[in-house]
Automatic annotation (TrEMBL):
Keywords in alphabetical order: Iron, Metal-binding, Monooxygenase, Oxidoreductase, Phenylalanine catabolism
Protein name: Phenylalanine-4-hydroxylase
Organism whose genome encodes this protein: Asticcacaulis machinosus
Pathway(s) the chain acts in: Amino-acid degradation; L-phenylalanine degradation; acetoacetate and fumarate from L-phenylalanine: step 1/6
Cofactor list: Fe(2+)
Gene from which this protein is expressed: phhA
Pfam families registered for this protein in UniProt: Biopterin_H
Length: 285
């Protein structure tokens, strides 16, 4: 999720040596304690209210098919449903994994999900992706064929981007779509980004707060824009539709990276000439 700081930020930072080279660990579902299932249920119940009417229809459809309201899901059961839908599976990892490891999993349609769950006193904030962020936030969209192909392509493109010195531009694309993306649906703005949809407070904020910018999606603009890892986003980009993501899987990014790397980087909150700013529809008094 985070750039550069990946390994340092890892919960077991400083010399953590994975048992397996792909960093996967057993989910060990039987070792979750009742209090941990309670945290899941609490998060789920709070979040289902937030996402209704705000998440895009494809997220809601995916979530519905997964049946994950009651307890921390068993990945084997989840994978029966997910694999049948799009050929993806979820694998357990301890937390953030190195970029190359992350890309390799995604390129093979394996989504690394944090095995652990946040504590009851951390419902709203944690730095590393836990099982709630990864499963509630990401897996519903992985049920969608477009997102399934897009995230695989991101994994495939990751190593190439790194070789071209363009990991940051590519990671910004992931950030402003998979994690914090908005999309137009029947003339309204809806959420599909997992970073938003797994956050109680950012879900209404992303759509209703007058504070952040909402800008019509432009690939080059997105790749130039820094993002916040420590607070709500200052800017959200709004895709015209999810299918647009497939265009990016067909495009050769090398010339685009060259252009992006030759232009100044934009700050998270910048609005520049040419931005198509999306305005909230203000209800009549
Ligand atoms: N590891 N588990 C996990 N989840 C992520 O989202 C993640 C990661 N490692 C690296 C990473 N994200 C990003 O830095 C890459 O997308 C660039
Ligand atoms: Fe994530």
């Amino acid at each position: 999720m985070l750039l550069q700081t990946t390994v340092e930020l890892h919960g077991k930072a400083g010399g953590y040596v994975p048992d397996r080279p792909d960093w996967t660990i057993p989910q060990d579902w039987d070792t979750y304690r009742p209090a941990e299932h309670d945290v899941w249920r609490t998060l789920y119940q709070r979040q289902i209210k937030q996402v209704k009417g705000r998440a895009c229809a494809d997220f809601m459809a995916g979530l519905d098919r997964l049946n994950i309201a009651d307890e921390i899901p068993r990945f084997e059961r989840l994978n029966d449903i997910l694999h049948a839908a799009t050929g993806w599976q979820v694998v357990a990892v301890p937390g953030l994994v190195p970029d190359e490891v992350f890309f390799e999993h995604l390129a093979n349609r394996r989504f690394p999900a944090g095995q652990f769950i946040r504590r009851a006193d951390q419902l709203d904030y944690l730095q590393e992706p836990d099982v709630f962020h990864d499963v509630f936030g990401h897996v519903p969209m992985l049920m969608h064929p477009v997102m399934a192909d897009f995230i695989q392509a991101y994994g495939q493109g990751g190593l190439r981007a790194k070789a071209l010195g363009a990991l940051e531009p590519l990671a910004r694309l992931y950030w402003y779509t998979v994690e914090f993306g908005l999309v137009f649906e029947a003339g309204e703005v809806r959420i599909f980004g997992a970073g938003i949809l797994s956050s109680y407070s950012e879900t209404p904020y992303a759509l209703e707060s007058p504070v952040p910018n909402r800008i019509a999606f432009d690939l080059e603009r997105v790749m130039r824009t820094r993002y916040r890892i420590d607070d709500f986003q200052e800017t959200y980009f709004v895709l015209p539709d999810l299918e647009r993501l497939l265009n990016f899987t067909q495009e050769d990014f090398a010339p685009l990276y060259a252009r992006v790397l030759n232009q100044p980087t934009l700050e998270a909150g910048d609005v520049i000439a040419g931005d198509d700013v999306v305005h909230l529809s203000v209800p009549m008094p």
